[in-house]
Write a structure and sequence with these properties.
Elements (H helix, E strand, L loop, with lengths): L2 H5 L8 H22 L2 H11 L6 H10 L5 H11 L3 H16 L6 H29 L5 H30 L9 H13 L15 H35 L4 H29 L1 H19 L6 H14 L2 H11 L4 H24 L2 H26 L16
Helix pairs in contact: 2-6, 2-7, 2-8, 2-9, 3-8, 3-10, 3-11, 4-7, 4-15, 5-7, 5-15, 6-7, 6-9, 7-15, 8-11, 8-14, 10-11, 10-12, 10-14, 10-15, 10-16, 11-12, 11-13, 12-13, 12-16, 14-15
Amino acid sequence: MSVQTQEGNPSISGSVEKQSNHLGLMSFAHFLNDGSANYLPGILPAILLALHEPSAMAGVLMAALLIGQALQPFTGIWADRVGGRLIFIFGLMGSSIGGALLGFSHALWVLILFLFVIGIGNAMFHPQALAIVRSSVNQKRQGLGLSAFLVGGELGRGVFPMITSFIVVALGLANLWLLAIPTLLTVPFLLRYAPQLPAQTKKSRRIDWKKHAKPMWFLVSFASLRSLIIYGVVTFIPILWHARGGNLVVGASIITTLLVVGIVGNLLGGHLADRYGRRPLLIVSSVFSAVIVALLAVVSGPLLWLLAGLLGIALFASVPVTVLVGQDIFPENRSLGSGIALGLANGIGAMLVLVIGMFISSIGVTGILVVIGILGLVDTGIAIAMPKIMTEHHGSASAHS
């Protein structure tokens, strides 16, 4: 899909008020999707206990949840070809219904099956939704607009672990189905009011994979290590807290702090990248993330919540920037670019969490967090080495034409 076709689409563009309404609706859908798809860490200790599984299974379950996100490049190509809005709406339904069914998992294989459903739904939601949002905002404020959309997702990821932990403690795992109700009430509004993307035409430019290979490698490498940090922390911090004698709700609140305070990073990241450039933000974000993760491994008490909040700001400041970079690498297929920047990278990050989780019995959770911090420094090196063209703002122009 050409950039010009998307940004000139009359079904998307409109008055400032209409664009704001669209952005608000899309952000709420993002809140529901990411909340449903990411609350597992908050109740992971309870699920492992209910199924009589060891802590070492945490990495396996998180990988099962997140590996489906590696499908996002494919759902992105599909979304660009067919246009419309149904793909992201069905994705939202898949994430929500899959999340609602987790409480009915009577065996490990059933739980993994439901986690795959959530992952596939998540993979369907993001590429098309991200492309719609970028095409719905003023070109000069795309970073800020995309940040506002991402805030909805981060709120969901932050709030839902707390909500689900309360439900599990008060009502039991079987009542997680309650979380699907808001989505079922929202879908009719999305079907009526959500913006639509135009379908690709025969005149649309083909994807030049050879031309995009080098910048794509840098992008995927950086974003995959960032995903490893995010998913590693949200997976292993609650387990560390529980191992130290803490209760489920309080452990989940650490993750909630990281994700909710991370909203500040989302908003600042897009704005600062628009103003000062993408490369400085990526470098500073990765340096602070590496240092804070290493500190999380050794501190206790209130400092855990303070560091979790600072880590959220540092990590999520780079998310809108990498999405924009992905869309600029693939201006002819922005849904694909979004899918690579988020989905493929998240899938690889999930696999890395699985690999690192295998060593939990030998080096412990503290050792796992130290390793993750070291990999954060590797991420800094990747940001420094990125080609200049990747970190320049391209607007509606092709990044590589």
